[in-house]
Amino acid sequence: MNETVLTVEKLGKSFKHQPIIQNISFEVKKGEIMAVLGPNGAGKSTIIRNIMGIMYPDEGSITFHNSQKNMIPRHKIGYLPEERGLYKNVKVMDILLYLADLKSYPLKKAKERAKVYLKKFGLEGKEQSSIDELSKGMGQKVQFIASILHEPELLILDEPFSGIDPVSQELFKKEIRSLANNGTAILLSSHQMNIVEEMCDRLFMIHRGRKVVYGSIEEVKKTYANFKCVIRGKNDRAVLEQISGVQRIEQNEDVSTLYLTKDIQPAKWLKNLPEYMIIQELSLDRISLHEIFIDVATDQNLLQEAGENYE
Ligand SMILES: Nc1ncnc2c1ncn2[C@@H]1O[C@H](COP(=O)(O)OP(=O)(O)OP(=O)(O)O)[C@@H](O)[C@H]1O
């Protein structure tokens, strides 16, 4: 088991006596990508700001390795805030070196790494351009480079993919994965569920400031009905209700969606479908993280297996 880099324990924060986050506990381990998810206003940035010391928690503790609060070594943390923006009239290389220097990172090494990363992100030749001469996406790339230049042990990325094109998204994804493979602990907040599903190891989902889901992507999917089967064809609900392994049925005109219990074996289940069923089209897919998110965020709680209480 990898060593724990960040421990957030029972974190609580209120604004004007209104609780914003409550009893938030999770860990980020060396070499893993942990996602913090939740609908707008759920409290993701508040958690991140408390970790970064931009805000102080009312309750709970934040531990980096074994050191708490003001002992947290800031130079070992990289942070890409939700609010983008670097000094506008400063040159790209100058800002990168200045920020690395603030983290006490050696100048020569910072310059070498800056060149490598600028090339990687297609910004070769832009070293002497000022930030306001760059496009928004280019500026974001520079800010991302600034967050990783000093080789942080913990990297916190608040919505790293917002506002960047699909090609650049691939570059970001590749780089984030490679940093994790080299041991960086990564905490990432994003609204793009497909990306989270694809690249994160574990996730922590909050809703109205409280934990709703925490675990590996696999564990989370197991907690929710595993597969869904979509059938096009006019079938009576009564017929569908007799099929074993069906947890819940949704019908919309001729399309029926069957949410299946997690104990079914897909091939066996398909084989046992009644012969008299009308099937024009059929698909069997895993529930996506996107669907789980919508289920949680809209308070439906329909996808979670009946009787399960996810802890
Ligand atoms: N400084 C503040 N004063 C008062 N309320 C605040 C402050 N900062 C955040 N809030 C409130 O706390 C709640 C959580 O905000 P937060 O920015 O953490 O959400 P989020 O999950 O990051 O949302 P989004 O996905 O929209 O970025 C919101 O209701 C917000 O209005």
Automatic annotation (TrEMBL):
Protein's recorded name: ATP-binding cassette domain-containing protein
SUPFAM superfamilies (UniProt xref): P-loop containing nucleoside triphosphate hydrolases (SSF52540)
Pfam families named among the record's database cross-references: ABC_tran, DrrA1-3_C
PROSITE patterns noted in UniProt: ABC_TRANSPORTER_2
Domain of life: Bacteria
UniProt organism field: Aeribacillus composti
Keywords: ATP-binding, Nucleotide-binding, Transport
Chain ranges of the ABC transporter domain: 6-233
Similarity comment: Belongs to the ABC transporter superfamily.
